[in-house]
Amino acid sequence: MELVSKFSQNSTIQNLHNLPIIEHFKFLVILLFSLLESFLILTKCDLFFQIIIPVLCTISYIIIFRYFLLKPPNIYLVDFSCFKPPNSCRIPLTSFIEHVHLSENFDKQSADFMSKILISSGQGPETYVPPSLHYIPPRPAHFDSMDEAKMVIFPMMEDLLRKSNLSPFEIDILIVNCSGFCPSPSLTSLVVNEFKLRPNIKAFSLSGMGCSASMIAMGLAQNLFLVHRESNAVILSTEILNTGWYSGNDRPKLVLNCLFRMGGAAILLSNKKQARKESKYQLIWSSRTQRAVIDRAYKSAFREEDSNGLTGVTLNKDILEVASDMIRAQLIALGSVMLPVSEKLKFVTSIIKKRYWKKSAEIYVPNFKTIVRHFCLPVSGKPVIREIAKGLKLGEREMEAALATLHRFGNQSSSSLWYELAYLEAKEKVRKGERVWMLGMGSGPKCTSVVLECIKPIVGESNKGPWARSIDKYPALAFNS
How far apart are alpha carbons 300 and 325 in whole angstroms? Predict the structure, then answer.
């Protein structure tokens, strides 16, 4: 307790110490202005100089204060860690299909439907589900969800602290995202209690955000860094499968049983200047699109009860069209900021041509490979990955990380994007100066993008992390499945 109290006091002093720098600057500038004006008056300078010099000084003060002291700090992704479930949680395709056929919860039509979805999904034989879902029939309960949360969150948090050589006391901000499981106390409280984090930590729990939650957490950390300078933020991104399992026979609700698998990621962000030397990436752009204002979009992915009172997530046919609209909005946002002028002109010209000259003409899709080298796409099934890549004019190389992640680990909701980035690192594809675009889509619906720039060579990752002992099997397995 003495250590915690002492650290809390030191942290408070440090936070208070950072703030007066701006206040001291203001005081010094006002003092200098006053002395200068007094000097001009005492020396009986011309009235013109007594007016124009203070005005010029005021303008200089505004410029310096606005562009130097209030400039948003650089945000660095120091490191990240992905959870690799134990082999006891592995569920081969044949075992899953056999289990659903043996389960008394599903009729034959539902079991056949799930089998068909699973076989065509692009998943491999080594994905994972929590222990309670291995029973026939599965028996998810609240205590199983808590056990799953501890099984996933604690190891990946420990691994992140070990990799980054970070003390729990050095964490200023904690964000935990999990869409379907919202216990009380919250998952952030669970982490604070387990790792004995500092008493004045800023802790946030995000729920109901779906597969885009990890990128939303990145945006939240980015905004918090505007206020909390010289800080470290840890994001824990996962999905608890026990709460999402559906035991009924409503087909639109059965798809999630087939696609979602166990996983999680821990990410360390920092806006400290000295963090650049240790960091892998710098966050250079983020954007978010929301479509919940449209009723059709709002109900495209909806958690509700069926006629028998069983809860599940209904996926409507509108979801693909809604996703297409959101991705288009993200492309416009990203393109307006980063695309070269030549690509912007081609895009604008194609719109004018379609509207005023040739209605059947296609709108030009800018070549985003000119500004982004690597792509982490939503892992929502093999057909969805290929459709997104087709719309973005991406090839096999750009789809490789997404297809490999889907085959090896399945759809791990918001953490899937980090397994894709881990894949790119394990293959040593990401080089210094190259950019990675991470695109997350989730319920709401919402679409969130983050662009990272690699700031140091990344080597030696093939024997670390979730892809150890399996990275050499890809991309062959991903594209042949």
Answer: 13
Specify whether the CB–CB gap between 391 and 365 falls below 8 A: yes
How does pLDDT run across 67-87, given as a tens digit for each residue? 555 567 899 999 999 999 999
Amino acid code (one letter) for 6: K
DSSP of 38-62: HHHHHTT--HHHHHHHHHHHHHHHH
List the one residue out of 439, 448, 444 whose CA is nearest residue 293.
Answer: 444
pLDDT in tens, 332-366: 788 778 888 888 888 888 878 877 777 777 777 77
Q: Say which amino acid occupies 241.
A: L
pLDDT digits (tens, 9 = 90+) for 2-31: 433 443 344 443 443 344 445 555 556 666
φ, ψ of residue 232 to 5 degrees: the values are -115, 140
What is the C-alpha separation between 102 and 105, in angstroms, rounded?
A: 9
Max CA-CA distance within the chain?
Answer: 99
Between CA 423 and CA 216 the distance in angstroms is 22
Contact by Cβ (8 Å): 444, 290: yes
Q: CB–CB of 278/78 below 8 Å?
A: yes
Euclidean distance between the first and final Cα of the chain, in Å?
55
Q: What is the 3-state secondary structure (H, E, C) of 412-438?
A: CHHHHHHHHHHHHHHCCCCCCCCEEEE
Vertex 362: Cα angle to 359 and 363 (nearest 5): 105
Q: Which residue has the tokens 């992704």?
A: 77
Q: What is the pTM of this model?
A: 0.85
